[in-house]
Design brief:
Blueprint (H helix, E strand, L loop, with lengths): L20 E4 L2 E2 L1 H6 E9 L5 E7 L1 E4 L2 E4 L12 E6 L6 E16 L2 E11 L2 H5 L1 E9 L1 H11 L3 E4 L7 E9 H11 L2 E6 L2 E6 L7 E5 L4 E8 L7 E8 L4 E7 L10 E2 H7 L5 E3 L8 H16 L3 E8 L9 E5 L8 E12 L3 E10 L1 E2 L3
Helix pairs in contact: 3-4
Length: about 375
């Protein structure tokens, strides 16, 4: 029997339909909904979600059997596709992007089928490669410039202040954005036509309670000290001041959860470990401190990693917080979701698989 749970039901009904629904170029296509066999929507830290959509392609067309979606139809390269999941009486959009690949297949004894691949609105940033410098620009200036060039508005909070020279050298816009934001321990996700940017510890797209043997169908959790350190150090030389500098960090923004950190447990067993950021250049002591804090926090938040599978939940997204119950005092805690995969097939129905992490072990 599952323990008592504070989970919110994914539906108010005991039995409900969770078949996906779609819109192509803004148009509802009931025939397409009926032909969907599988879908998988994948998202992770760093932005850009992707869709893999499998469908049958044989049915009644103009009074006779034939290919339902052929050339000249709504399923075409470059078309906008929106996928809705959850209870069909109140579906929630989990993907909005552009088709970049279509695959047709067929074999003896099986009807023709299509596989459609799409990516969200960061697809254009992934496809744009350039070399460019951003002089006397803040992180937010860089984000605003790139986002606006791809038709995205920006909702950004918690970005570091200060201007610098940023150099994009034969990188895609997406790769460059990820590098700039990772250096500042920041995270981005596309929501509609808005690029949402937050510090990684502050990214919060809602909190869910999940209980093992209830909505949480499967879970694996591991606390691993092997990648943890007790201190991160950044060094450099400030030409304006004419002196070198050294900055250290033991953490600034650990993220959700409570209990013991990996660093504190290492100290308890006499395994003090320091990491030197020798490969990352920094101009002054302020930048060095920010880099050291970011590097320490990124390591610390990976101390406890959770892999789970739940019944399909369209509210479980990258940036969500998960309160875990029923696994025991050591691991019942609050975790930040860093990967999510929404999947549908005729055998399993709609399920959500996810990876979450925390800097804390609740009780050792």
């Amino acid at each position: 029997m599952p323990p008592e749970t504070s989970e919110r039901p994914v539906s108010s009904r005991t039995a409900y339909s969770a078949r996906p629904t779609l819109r192509v170029d803004g148009q509802a296509l009931p025939a397409l909904d009926d032909l969907v066999r599988t879908f998988s929507v994948t998202e992770a830290e760093g932005g850009m979600s992707s869709l893999s959509l499998g469908m049958g392609n044989w049915g009644m067309v103009g009074g006779s059997l034939g290919l339902v979606f052929d050339a000249g139809g709504p399923i075409k390269l470059g078309a906008r596709v929106q996928l809705y999941a959850g209870e069909t009486s109140g579906p929630i959009e989990i993907f909005d992007g552009q088709i970049h690949a279509i695959e047709a297949s067929g074999s003896v004894g099986a009807p023709p089928s299509l596989l459609v691949l799409a990516e969200d609105k960061l697809y254009a940033a992934r496809m744009s490669r350039r070399s460019k410098s951003y002089e006397a620009s803040s992180v937010e200036d860089v984000v605003q410039t790139i986002a606006s060039s791809h038709g995205l508005t920006v909702d950004a909070t918690g970005l570091p202040s200060g201007n610098a020279l940023w150099v994009q050298m034969n990188e895609s816009d997406l790769s460059f954005l990820r590098r700039v934001l990772s250096r500042s321990d920041c995270e981005m996700q596309v929501i509609g036509s808005t690029l949402q940017v937050r510090s990684s510890a502050d990214m919060d797209r809602g909190t869910l309670d999940l209980t093992l043997y209830s909505q949480l169908q499967e879970v694996r959790v591991i606390a691993d000290l092997s990648s943890q350190v007790t201190e991160v150090m950044a060094r450099g030389f400030d030409p304006a001041a004419g002196s070198d500098f050294t900055k250290t960090s033991t953490g600034a923004q650990p993220g959700p959860g409570s209990g013991r950190t990996g660093a504190s447990l290492l100290s308890d067993i006499g395994m003090e470990r320091s990491e030197n950021l020798g490969a990352l250049p920094c101009r002054n002591d302020t930048e060095a401190q920010a880099l050291a804090d970011a590097a320490f926090d990124q390591r610390a938040r990976q101390f406890v990693r959770l892999h789970g599978r739940t019944e399909g939940n369209a509210g479980l997204r990258v940036g969500s917080r998960v309160n875990l119950h029923g696994v025991g005092r050591r691991f019942d805690n609050c975790y930040a979701v860093v990967e999510a995969r929404h999947r549908f097939d005729p055998t399993s129905g709609y399920v959500t698989e996810f990876v979450a992490q925390s800097a804390f072990i609740a009780d050792n």
